Amino acid sequence: SISPRQALAVIWSGRFASKNPVSAQLHLNYAIVLMNARRYAEAERHLKLTIELEPQGFAAPILLAQVYHFTGRTEEGLALMSTPPFTETSIRAYFFAAAGRRSEALAIVERFQKNPAPADLLSLGVTHLLLGNDERGFDFLEQAVANRLGYMRWVNVHPLYDPWRSDPRFAALVKQLRLPAAG
Q1: Could you tell me the pTM of the whole model?
Q2: Nearest-CA neighbor of 81 among 91, 72, 71?
């Protein structure tokens, strides 16, 4: 069940996307809202359309891979993240961890966590969480907040974080970001 605020976001985002059906950005935004509302089939459809409209885009394939993961198709998500331009990114560690391929995930983590770029902090944090290293995972997520990473604005509604919502460290992150309570 989604909150009334999320329901309104779904409605308005859908209206904007329908008003300009060739805008990759509007379809991407709508897909994010749909994914956060756990409406994965619709999100998948809009992400595929986004990729069709903007084949060189970076965000839509990552989000599509996440939708694959949330719908039990983690290997499909990993396959998508195993193509250029994602082969040399930290995001692959998350998908290896989600697929239960611990050694491959750790190899990527080792390479990136020594001197992580701000963009790597979120991937490293989530990978550690998926590998059961919650302390280290939350350390990286706190660094992502400190670096004011834009992706952190979704942390309170993104399905990826559902397993950790009851963790006091997660509540502290949400409080630090001054996000409203999730519905």
Answers
A1: 0.86
A2: 91
pLDDT per position as a tens digit, 73-129: 999 999 999 999 999 999 999 999 999 999 999 999 999 998 999 989 999 999 999
Mapped onto helix, strand or coil, the DSSP state of residue 53 is helix
Site of tokens 């979120």:
122
| AA identity, residue 167 | D
Cβ burial 158-181 (10 Å sphere, 16+ → b, else e): bbbbeebeeeeebeebbeeeeeee
Structure tokens at 128: 């550690």
List Cα–Cα distances, 80 to 92, 118, 163, 175, in angstroms: 9, 23, 24, 34
Q: How far is CA 68 from CA 44, 71, 81, 158, in A?
A: 8, 5, 11, 14
| Token pair listed for 143 | 């660094």
Q: How far apart are CA 89 and CA 43, in angstroms?
A: 24
For residues 155 and 177, the answer to whether their CB atoms sit within 8 Å is yes
Question: For residue 34, what are the contacts with CB-CB under 8 A and spacing of at least 6?
Answer: 10, 13, 40, 42, 43, 46
Please give the DSSP secondary-structure letter assigned to residue 180: P
- 52 contacts 66 by C-beta, under 8 angstroms: no
